[in-house]
Every structure is written in C-alpha cells, then in structure tokens.
C-alpha cells in the first residue's frame, strides 16, 4: 500500500504551463489519497506547485534540502516539515528513506541525476520500490529511448525494464505505483550482464 512517496521535479518557474497543470493534478490525487509526499523543499517551479497544492488540499509534504540552499532562500516556508542536510548526497539518501515509491516529474539535470541514481540503486537491489516517470508532453521520450537502447545494446538486461514505468497522464501514476512488478534486494545477482 502506497502511503508515502518521493517526488522529483523541477525548480524552474519559466517552463510550459502544461507541466504545472500536470503537477497540480498529481498533487491533488496524492492529497485525496492521504499519501504523504517527500520532495526537494523548494518554493519555485514544480516543487512550489507541488507543495502549494498539497497544502491547499490538506495534504502532508516534507521538504529535504541542504543548508546552503536554505541560506539563499530557496526553501518553501509553509511545508509540513523541513529537514536540512549537510550535503546533496545526504539529501538524496533521505529522499528515499521509508518511501513506498518514487515519482519523477519533468525537470533538469538535478531531476535527471536523482532519477538515474535511484534506477542504479534499484538495479543493485539497494532500493526496491516502484519508480514511475510522468512523461508529460512527451518530455521523457529521449530518456525512454536511451534506456531502451541501453537494454538493446546489452548494457542492461531485459529484466531491468521492470525497474521503471513511464506514464503520460497524472491520473495513471497511482495505478502504475500500485501495479509495479515486485523488485527484491537479490536483484544484485543479475545486475551485471555476463
């Protein structure tokens, strides 16, 4: 049962409205289902929209942010909780602690880096929860193609395709989380292609 999710997403405010609309819809669904959200804790871009919508709907949203980001006033001031870390590495580790799933919305290099690290951890059996990528406006088509190519070229196994799910609409995210194939810590046994 999904009770707590981590959401990776953009901090940029200068993006197409379609991404804000998708984020607002997803946040509404999560709040309606009483699913707690862990995020980067920022006040702008999709992070801000996610937090504002969750709070407006009475949901719980927890931010995790390095101290140096808070010191330059990037932090959302009305989060349910804010946890400060010393480093970006510590932040990423805390994102995934005690979560039942991971959702990735559109984002830049930080979002991509966090997502690919989570996929790597899952491949090694160090993270076993569902990973759902919301492909709003086809944003993640190039990533989908790259992951497919990695499998086709034997950099990853066909089994690794079960580590993630791409969905196009916010209303499909919870279903994808709930229907994700089971993944176990013993996946390290087939992490390397031989």
How do the helices and strands line up, and which of them pair or pack?
Layout: E1 4-8, H1 17-32, E2 36-39, H2 45-56, E3 61-66, H3 67-71, E4 81-85, H4 88-96, E5 101-104, H5 109-123, E6 131-134, H6 141-152, E7 165-167, H7 173-178
Parallel strand pairs: 1-2, 1-5, 2-3, 3-4, 5-6, 6-7
Helix pairs in contact: 1-2
Structure write-up:
With 194 residues, the protein is α/β, with parallel strands linked by helices. The protein has one domain: 3-Layer(aba) Sandwich (Rossmann fold), CATH 3.40.50.450. It contains 7 helices and 7 strands; from the N terminus they run βαβαβαβαβαβαβα. The protein has helices at residues 17-32, 45-56, 67-71, 88-96, 109-123, 141-152, 173-178, and strands spanning 4-8, 36-39, 61-66, 81-85, 101-104, 131-134, 165-167. The chain has a 7-stranded parallel beta sheet, sandwiched between helices. α2 (45-56) links the parallel β2 and β3 (61-66). The N and C termini lie far apart (35 Å). The mean pLDDT is 95.
């Amino acid at each position: 049962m999904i009770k707590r999710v981590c959401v990776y997403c953009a901090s940029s405010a200068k993006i197409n409205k379609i991404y804000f609309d998708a984020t607002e819809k997803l946040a509404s669904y999560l709040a309606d289902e009483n699913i707690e959200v862990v995020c980067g804790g920022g006040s702008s871009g999709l992070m801000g929209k996610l937090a504002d919508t969750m709070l407006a709907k009475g949901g719980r949203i927890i931010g995790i942010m390095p101290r140096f980001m808070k010191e330059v006033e990037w932090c959302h001031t009305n989060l349910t909780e804010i946890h400060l870390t010393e480093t970006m590495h510590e932040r990423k580790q805390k994102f995934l602690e005690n979560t039942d799933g991971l959702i990735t919305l559109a984002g830049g290099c930080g979002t991509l880096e966090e997502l690919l690290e989570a996929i790597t951890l899952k491949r090694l059996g160090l993270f076993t929860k569902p990973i759902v990528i919301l492909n709003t406006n086809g944003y993640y088509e190039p990533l989908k193609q790259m992951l497919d190519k990695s499998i086709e070229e034997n950099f990853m196994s066909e089994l690794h395709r079960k580590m993630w799910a791409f969905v196009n609409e916010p209303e499909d995210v919870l279903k994808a989380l709930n229907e994700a194939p089971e993944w176990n810590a013993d996946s390290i046994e087939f992490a390397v292609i031989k």
